[in-house]
Amino acid sequence: MEPKQPIDRIGKWSEEKLDLLGKYLNAYTKIMKGQEWCKNGYHYIDAFAGTGKPMAKDEERYIDGSPIVALKVKYPFKSYTFIEEEDWRVERLKKLRDEFPNVDIQIRHGDCNTIIIDEIVPKIRYENFNRGIVFLDPFGMNIEWPTIQSIAATRALEIFLNFPVLAINRTVLRNDPYKLSEKQIERMNRFWGSADWKDDIYQEATDLLGTYIEKIPQTAKGLGLKFQKRLEEVFPEVTLPIVMRNSKGTPLYCLIFAGHNTIGKNIAESIFRRFESL
């Protein structure tokens, strides 16, 4: 008997995220297709691509993951780069070349931080007359601040970021800061780009026994706003975060757009506002 094949499953909230991504990508490519100065094209990079076709959590149906959402835009990107670390996901991504034979699909196997800095950033830059979008949808806190800095420094790449609120709360921002391990602190430092997050998250308090450190109450929106301010240090245009929740109302993550022009920001904000009004 052959071992059961692994499969990615996603909830309705992830489908909503993919819908928002698709709306932005279609608006972006519609604008970019007519820009003569962009003579070396516009490109899509998916840093945590998955398999391309996850399955719904609540029923037996496959869903178009972010790679296929991007591949199906009306005005295609010049190239698509899908990055994955897991061997089995990489093998399934390769099948997309058969489904979309006339499209330039590059599949990179490895850590997205290294691949983006070493391969993507040197090629897609303002001075190279090209542009691109990087979709950052990390499994936990697997994106690192130097990667975001490098993307911003190109002045040509935008990011559509899935800011991992739940992962941060579970992994690092526990109620008792004294229980944090050095490994957890270092992980948060790499994600945030400094240890300054401690000043926003913890505060000194005093009781009859003396002074101690406690966690400042945080909402998902509040945590997202703090990272928005961090992004504004390297990107000129950053949207307010929108909170994405599961079926029980638990905040899972925030979506944030960051880029280099007001048009992209305005498009993203319009899409986000319509979602929040529903």
Tell me what the structure shows.
The chain is of the alpha/beta class and 278 residues long. It has one domain (9-277): Vaccinia Virus protein VP39 (Rossmann fold, 3-Layer(aba) Sandwich), CATH 3.40.50.150. Helices cover 39% and strands 22% of the residues. The chain has 11 helices and 12 strands. Strands 2, 4, 5, 6, 7, 10, 11 and 12 form an 8-stranded mixed beta sheet that branches. Strand 11 and strand 12 form a beta hairpin. The longest helix is centred in the N-terminal third of the chain and has 21 residues, at 12-32. The radius of gyration is 20 Å and the shape is globular. The mean pLDDT is 91.
Task: Throw out a few tags for this protein.
12 strands; alpha/beta; 8-stranded mixed beta sheet; two-stranded parallel sheet; 278 residues; Rossmann fold; globular
Provide the fold topology.
Blueprint: E1 9-10, H1 12-32, E2 42-46, E3 55-56, H2 66-71, E4 79-84, H3 87-94, H4 96-99, E5 105-109, H5 112-120, E6 131-136, H6 145-153, E7 157-163, H7 165-171, H8 182-192, H9 197-201, E8 202-207, E9 210-215, H10 220-231, E10 237-238, E11 242-245, E12 251-259, H11 262-277
Parallel strand pairs: 1-3, 2-4, 2-6, 4-5, 6-7
Antiparallel strand pairs: 7-12, 8-9, 10-12, 11-12
Précis, in short:
The protein has one domain: Vaccinia Virus protein VP39 (Rossmann fold, 3-Layer(aba) Sandwich). Helices cover 39% and strands 22% of the residues.
**Helix-strand makeup class:** alpha/beta
Mean pLDDT over the full residue set: 91
Q: Report the uncertain regions.
A: none
Tally of extended strands?
12
What fraction of residues sit in β-strands? 15-25%
Please give the alpha-carbon distance between the first and last residues.
48 Å
Order of secondary-structure elements = EHEEHEHHEHEHEHHHEEHEEEH
Percentage of residues in helical conformation: 25-40%
What is the third-level CATH name, the topology?
A: Rossmann fold
Largest pleated sheet: 8 strands, mixed
Number of domains: 1
The CATH H-level superfamily is Vaccinia Virus protein VP39
**Number of DSSP helical runs:** 11
Report the C-alpha radius of gyration, rounded.
20 Å
- If classified by CATH, what would the architecture be? 3-Layer(aba) Sandwich
CATH class: Alpha Beta
Shape: globular
